[in-house]
């Protein structure tokens, strides 16, 4: 008898898209994040050493939220997936909304036991 999943999976690349704040054109999606940086997965290589004005569009109800960040590209390399590139960014003075997002992601993806052990 096959197991059936009861919890639907979220496709994070669909939710954590990154846009150029000045042009509103998509740059890629978040691969991973930390309090002072992030990795962006994109279709094009990005210029190492360049500073980028980015906008994270966070889906929500009743409305979508924006988190504007400024980040400097530290490195860029081809991803294992053909046609994709990974770029590491150092954030310049991350806003409070970004820090809140990191904390929310940590809570969401943590596997902490809330029940007391016997």
Topology:
Layout: H1 12-15, E1 17-20, E2 26-34, E3 37-42, E4 51-58, E5 65-78, E6 85-92, H2 96-109
Antiparallel strand pairs: 1-2, 1-4, 2-3, 3-6, 4-5, 5-6
Structure, described:
GO terms for molecular function: cyclic-di-GMP binding. The protein is of the alpha+beta class and 118 residues long. It has one domain (11-110): Thrombin, subunit H (Beta Barrel), CATH 2.40.10. The protein contains 2 helices and 6 strands, in the order H-E-E-E-E-E-E-H. It has helices at residues 12-15, 96-109; strands spanning 17-20, 26-34, 37-42, 51-58, 65-78, 85-92. It has a 6-stranded antiparallel beta barrel with strand order 1-2-3-6-5-4. The longest helix has 14 residues, at 96-109. The chain is globular and about 35 Å long. Mean pLDDT is 82; it is low at 5-11.
List keywords for this structure.
single chain, 118 residues, alpha+beta, Thrombin, subunit H, six-stranded antiparallel beta barrel, 2 helices, 6 strands, 42% strand
According to DSSP, the number of beta strands is 6
Q: Roughly how many Å is the radius of gyration?
A: 17 Å
Q: What is the average of the pLDDT values? A: 82
At the first level of CATH, what is the class?
A: Mainly Beta
Pfam families: PilZ
GO molecular function: cyclic-di-GMP binding
Domain PilZ: 4-91
Protein name: Pilus assembly protein PilZ
What's this entry about, in short?
GO terms for molecular function: cyclic-di-GMP binding. Residues 4-91 form the PilZ domain. This protein is an alpha+beta fold and 118 residues long.
């Amino acid at each position: 008898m096959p197991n059936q999943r009861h919890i639907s999976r979220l496709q994070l690349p669909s939710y954590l898209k990154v846009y150029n704040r000045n042009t509103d054109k998509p740059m890629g999606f978040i691969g991973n994040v930390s309090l002072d940086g992030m990795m962006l997965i994109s279709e094009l290589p990005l210029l190492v050493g360049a500073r980028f004005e980015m906008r994270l569009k966070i889906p929500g109800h009743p409305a979508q939220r924006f988190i504007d960040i400024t980040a400097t590209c530290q490195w860029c390399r081809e991803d294992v997936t053909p046609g994709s590139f990974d770029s590491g960014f150092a954030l310049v003075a991350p806003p409070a909304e970004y820090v809140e997002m990191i904390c929310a992601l940590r809570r969401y993806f943590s596997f902490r036991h809330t029940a007391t052990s016997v």
